[in-house]
Predict the 3D structure of the following.
Amino acid sequence: MPLDAMNDISDDALLVLFANGDRAAARALTLRLTPRVLAHAQRLLGSPAEAEDVAQEAMLRLWKVAPEWRQGEAKVTTWLYRVVANLCTDRLRKGHSLPLEAAPEPIDTSRGPAAALQGAARAEALQRALGGLPERQRQAVVLRHLEDMGNPEIAGIMDISVEAVESLLARGRRALAAELAGQRAELGFVDEQD
Amino acid sequence: MSRIDDDIAALRGYFEAGRSHGAQPSGALLARVLADATQAQAAQAAMAMSPGAEPARQAGLWQQVLRGLGGWPALAGLATATVAGIWIGFSPASGIDAYLDPADPAYVVDLDPWQTFDLASMTEGAM
């Protein structure tokens, strides 16, 4: 089946095709899920190299679980984000990563060099501030505000109640806002408000 | 405006920047992930085809037999009874020797318990 024809197929249906030996399904899942897994791992760990290792390991676990996957029972992305979070937690506890390390990102210059540089600087500042949050608060904030997930789905990934998610989010945002408040002028926010 | 709304408003620009600057996988990473996928598919296909699946089926059959007997407690009782039987066979209690190996091979048969002269004693010689 051509790769384009798989765009409309759900993740779990692709996983069933993968388990049946479909090579195109393997390519489609790799291209669809690896960017999300990598971005999430990097936001939790801060380190690009560590995030690559976690992304590869999480995808490997997905390949291994594929034959036992029951279509419609769980969301593939929910399962994957949970695996990524667990792998990141293991690495952070072993001191493998530096949460305060700012990740160098490719700069998108499509909106002009100045805006692109400003965006990159803001993203770096956010990453540094995220690195200073307690692990669970960081995970909740990343899932809600950078991965655009709803609180019930976050609760499912983190295996806690929706109320606990809301509490983690409120405390995480408060700490981030306090940490980043002093950098607003430097990162161009004051000029935008004036 | 609540404090939560204030925080969200203050952070909105940071979150927008963070979303648009997410890490992108390198070609090398995608190639490694795809190689893992191909290897996993090959291993799963080999496992489905190989006779290595036989022990699992045998284990399943053994489990079925065990369930049929009533599980591990029933099997333990069966094993105890077997061992006790073997032990009694090799080393019987002294009280039952007379029954197993009598010096006088005679036995009594009550033919009709309602009659007065109802006992018949039979010896080997009388038979």
In short: Residues 17 and 43 of chain A are 31 Å apart (CA to CA).
